[in-house]
């Protein structure tokens, strides 16, 4: 996905959705902390690297 993004300027579908999920996760994390819950590890955004890996595999085939 990284190479694809670099050479075309257009991210893969999985990476695009992962970016949205990551943003929503950050928003959820902000709300979570605002409510006083310190469980940072629960809302760690892991969407992006996993989806970029999926994109890389997809475009390599």
Automatic annotation (TrEMBL):
It comes from the Archaea. One of its GO terms (molecular function) is monooxygenase activity. Keywords: Membrane, Monooxygenase, Oxidoreductase, Transmembrane, Transmembrane helix. The chain crosses the membrane at residues 14-35, 42-60. InterPro entries: AmoA_arc, NH3/CH4_mOase_suA_sf. This is Putative ammonia monooxygenase subunit A. It comes from uncultured crenarchaeote.
């Amino acid at each position: 996905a990284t190479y694809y993004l670099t050479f075309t300027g257009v991210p893969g579908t999985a990476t695009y959705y992962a970016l949205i999920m990551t943003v929503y996760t950050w928003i959820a994390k902000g709300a979570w902390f605002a409510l006083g819950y310190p469980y940072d590890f629960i809302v760690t955004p892991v969407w992006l690297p996993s989806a970029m890996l999926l994109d890389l595999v997809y475009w390599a085939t």
